[in-house]
Amino acid sequence: MKKIMKQDQDVTKQHNKQMILDIIKKQRPISRAEIAKITRMSATSIGRFVSELCEEGLIRETELTSSGVGRKAIMLDIEPGAIYTIGVDMAKKRISFGIMDFSEAIIAQHRMDHKTQDSTPEETAELICNEMEGMLKQTGIPLEKVVGIGIGMPGVINYERGIVQLSTTLEWKDVAFASLIEKRLQIKTVIDNDLKVKILSEYLYGSAKGSNKTALIGIGTGIGSALIINGEVFRGGSNSAGELGHTTLDPNGNLCECGKRGCLQTYIDENSLIMEARRVKDVSDVRQVFAAARNEERWAKEIVSRTALYLGITINNIVCMYNPDTVIVSGDLVENYREIIDLVEEHSDQVIWEPFKGKFRVIPSELKGEAIVMGAGALAMQHFAPLAGTWAEES
Amino acid sequence: MKKIMKQDQDVTKQHNKQMILDIIKKQRPISRAEIAKITRMSATSIGRFVSELCEEGLIRETELTSSGVGRKAIMLDIEPGAIYTIGVDMAKKRISFGIMDFSEAIIAQHRMDHKTQDSTPEETAELICNEMEGMLKQTGIPLEKVVGIGIGMPGVINYERGIVQLSTTLEWKDVAFASLIEKRLQIKTVIDNDLKVKILSEYLYGSAKGSNKTALIGIGTGIGSALIINGEVFRGGSNSAGELGHTTLDPNGNLCECGKRGCLQTYIDENSLIMEARRVKDVSDVRQVFAAARNEERWAKEIVSRTALYLGITINNIVCMYNPDTVIVSGDLVENYREIIDLVEEHSDQVIWEPFKGKFRVIPSELKGEAIVMGAGALAMQHFAPLAGTWAEES
User: Fold this and answer.
1) What kind of fold does domain A84-198+371-394 have according to CATH?
2) Does the beta carbon of B254 lie under 8 angstroms from any beta carbon of chain A?
3) Same-fold call for A84-198+371-394 versus A209-365
4) Which letter, b or e, does each residue of B279-291 get, where b requires 16 or more Cβ atoms within 10 Å of its Cβ?
5) Residue A357: CB atoms within 10 Å
6) Which B positions 280-309 lie with beta carbon below 8 A of chain A?
7) Coil, helix or strand for B92?
8) What is the pLDDT of residues A46-95, one digit of tens each?
9) What Pfam families does the record point to (chains A, B) (predicted)?
10) Over 50: is that where the pLDDT of B395 sits?
């Protein structure tokens, strides 16, 4: 059943104030008159909301020469230093950090090597908190200006409760990670699956800008997917939608680390490439396979071609299930070896279902390594920035 | 970007009026006092909206002995005869009709044999219109009380524009079917993919009531799926999400009617069972295969078992992609041969990804043959009933 919520003056007021802040954020700098044109609200109402937002320190007035007539106009802009969030990208072997200001720019970055598997979750949380404190000290940002922390990590994440349900990459099960950070720093923290954070990022800042129906495939040590529709990340019943890697292709196929047979990831992720290569040559990483393929060695070319074929199948299957207008392919494997994407094109006639041909575009990730840090910062902004949630309550 | 829409008094008023109508519809009969308790609106406001709804003929007052105190109370109820919609289910060999009243009860039904493939779309539209006129005449419902028609049909349907983009079952391509009906009867018409209509129906009236994250698998002459989240049918970019049947399992697998190899439906739909059986015995339909299996013939048991295995894989793949809390299995194949669902249970350890085990339930369709007629009537109600769209505009 849809929302049962009375709409009264307070709700309406909050809605309109949030809308004005949103317009300033997206079209800054902008004049009061332009806001009036967009919203069709009265000058008096706009004036009142703008004053409130100025008093709260979220926006400021700037003087700009407007392009048309040459005379000076008072414009409104976000106050970038009003608040901050910190975005964190936890990967298998490294953790990346970024401080995001209210204008959603990353103003400081930091990266460190860390094998999460070798530490307890408590140790990792302590380490992350120390690093963040160090970054804030260096940049001179007081702790109380940080309204929230967002963390993207691989695995099945209970994002509402802040629990890592299962992460085979981090080797964690049922870890209440968000509260470890919150307790230590007294800053609200949201954690989420890395690919869900990544697609949010591509939607806000990268390849998927302007597309409201975008799917993302991430290929590296595993394979997964995510989807964003009308600005909302598609989560399914318990935030686990998009677990593409464990869809079954062949009930008698390759054995997967999950214990099932024939999971898609056993045909396409980095491990599967290495396993396949070792039938012929003793390779230690995927780089050697691609080097051999570039060197025209037939066994390696066959492996690369087969990977492209299965990437094509993956794209077909995700398009059949989600019907997006854009598919972003991302992850170490495709970002380091672009030739795979070119090869997918060659297979597309064979693997894409006819009615979908020409109905979507396949593009590489634009943000690459930055995507998760930026998306995690944005996620924290959506959750914890002032006035945030006004919209969420309504929908 | 999210909605930019000023909220003013008119919007607020429409919202609250629709909310009250909605509450009466779902909890009828209900008193003004109970509505006040739910909405926390003032008695004056509720009184005003109720008067308007009574004047418009959408609701009526009834006198009921309230259970608690024994004295009579004035209750509010929907006026079932205020308006009607007609729901139509177009299948390969038959067309079913149902007239739905404002209380969303089907008050008249009708079914006819018709092979759509043997007629032009114009002929089929004419036939459907004649049948509907006949039903209205019989029931004494004037044409002008019918606010809309909803039609569910197999295929890729452009539901916003009323166009059948591709239906291999009906053998139609790019047919503007909704406008054929609209022109002939002057009644607004919405068409949609049959499984999307079916899941709406199961959500409103059947197995999925109370579940906000339900997927549906339909298996018969083909295989497809649908998903409903928070009361909204998941449509994807162009209403083609859920095309499960053409996800690829094996690039070297069975040839599919679509021209690709190894599509899921070539392993599990009725055709594939018959093709497989014919390697051993000259069967003409799927009934013979199940009869032989029930008769303990080994070849037939193997086919049924394999079908159950692939149904298990289908369920795993849909759960991985959509992460629903409920999966409804529907369609002639599973509705006529329930033993398949029991067999799926046996395979589930082998085919369901560990983190999802125990996190969802698999249930058969409750409405069966009625589902699409009811869902199509409801779809028309959602689109064309008075005050409908008030919510839609906001979200």
Assistant:
1) Nucleotidyltransferase; domain 5 (3.30.420)
2) no
3) yes
4) eeeebeebeebbe
5) 11
6) 309
7) coil
8) 999 999 999 999 999 987 665 566 667 789 999 999 999 999 999 989 99
9) HTH_24, ROK
10) no
